Hints:
The complex is a heterodimer. By secondary structure, chain A is α/β, with parallel strands linked by helices. Chain A has 14 helices and 17 strands. A seven-stranded mixed β-sheet of chain A has the order 2-10-9-8-7-3-4, sandwiched between helices. A four-stranded antiparallel β-sheet of chain A has the order 13-14-17-16, covered by helices on one side. Chain B has one domain (6-141): Sufe protein. Chain: A, CATH 3.90.1010. Chain B has helices at 6-16, 21-32, 78-91, 96-100, 106-110, 118-141, and strands at residues 57-63, 69-75. Chain B has a two-stranded antiparallel ribbon with strand order 1-2. The longest helix of chain B is centred in the C-terminal third of the chain and has 24 residues, at 118-141. Chain A binds chain B through residues 20-21, 349-353, 356-357, 359-360, 367-368, 382-383, 411-412, and chain B through 20-22, 25-26, 29, 54-56, 76-80, 115-117, 120.
Amino acid sequence: MGLDLEAIRADFPILSRTMDGGRPLVYLDNAATTQKPKQVIEAMNSYYENTNSNVHRAVHTLAGEATEGYENARTEIAAYFGSPRDHLIFTSGTTEAINLVAYGWARANLSKGDVIVTTEMEHHADIVPWQILSKERGIEIRYIPLERDTLTLDMDAFEIAVKDASLICVVHTSNVLGVRNDVERIIQLSKTKGNRGNGAFVMIDAAQAAPHERINFIELGCDFLALSSHKMGGPTGIGGLFVKPEIMETMDPFISGGDMIETVTLEGSTFQKGPPKFEAGTPRIAEAFGWHAAIKWLSTHNMEEVHEHVSNLARHTAEQMSKISGIKIYGRHDLENCSGVVSFLHEKIHAEDLAHLLDSGGFAVRTGHHCAQPLMEALGVSSTARISFWLYNTQEEANAFVEHLESIVERFG
Amino acid sequence: MTNWPLPLKKIIAEFQDCFDRMERYELLFDYANKLPHELQSKDWTEENRVKGCQSKAHVECMIDENGGFQIHGAADANLVQGLIAILAIGVDGMPPSEVASLSPKFVDEMDVKASLTPSRANGFLNMFEMIRNTAADMETEA
Lengths: 413, 142
């Protein structure tokens, strides 16, 4: 049937605003954060207008409604990812989710001599926590390189590195290259060959994947799945870590204080079981309402169609861009599973200049190292410009972008 | 128009004549090629790096043989190098005391700020502030 782009776009108030010179906004920075449908904005407004209260403790009506809404959000969001509600810990986003694995699980379960395998393709959020842990505990980190000609992970190197590894941390879909890693194979290899055949633990960074495809945490078979709400139409400030309950039991709290305890005496404290143990303090209540609304909204669309639409836009645009003199594309848009990200550079115009020049035409694009400096080094660049599509972007917008880029290159290149 | 030094006055007038943002960018690109004292990339150091700039930008302030102020600089992005060039041309050869007392309001008169993101505009103003402080220090030391 296909996506009804007109109806989809009508749900996003911001897409109707105009930019400098009355030009329409063409938002192509979705890998950084997506825009929010009115259903999300209304859910959060409604929470503050009608329900606002702290959750879990008080007995008054508002507190009951806030608690019910907050915990319903957990149930429905977990279900969207094919998981029971007790597998989902709310965090501030992917970064905090990965840090929770590092500080809550790895600190309690890994020690000197253990090996963590990650990759050159990771976001800094999936590198720095392991470097800090490595320094603190003497844990070895191995980085799986990128094959320079295919821009995909060197799976031969992975097969060797995984053998005596305890924890594997891999990005599902790159925020720079648009490449979707074969996470199913990575998990299977980790479970059968990792830690000398006894199986390694696996953490998947799904921040860029969740907006593009339906992920089933249970079927995927990893131990930890980290993601953010704001990259899939939800609000900023909330995300989640999916963890198998038997593993959650072996984790220490990352932050502590109110709400996560059972009892506190001057001699010591006992903690709640399950996700609440890791959600100290007043949680992100309005954000949970908003993320729940985003999930409900996304559920009305066929994610296979979303993926096809977004990857077709990226593929077509990358093809057109590569015909422009001096433009070099970084990524594999010929692959069936590519996401909506296209990174590029011009041989003469600096990426930051490009972003300014594109912005003058109403095109919101990203430049910089995209929090992936090791990947930039592997690509032999210090930064790239990046466009990233989501389901509301149209072919007309993509064409207008290519046209504007061409005119910039003609004028400034 | 405020009583700016003549070279700066000319630059302000040029930018005021620009029709739109793209023309202002084009002018900045032109100025990027007019750096009076280009700092060669071999001389780019951590000490002369402009902090908080996404692109690589380096600036050093010097005094010429006549006691005039000089800005030596460069950047890998043309828009940033253009901004450095405007400052370098605008104050070239001025007594450090005059550079130290220059108002940043000329940026508003050029209407360049509207063409930059707030972080870039702040970066430019921070660079200008650093140059003014250096000029003040030079004046004190002289």
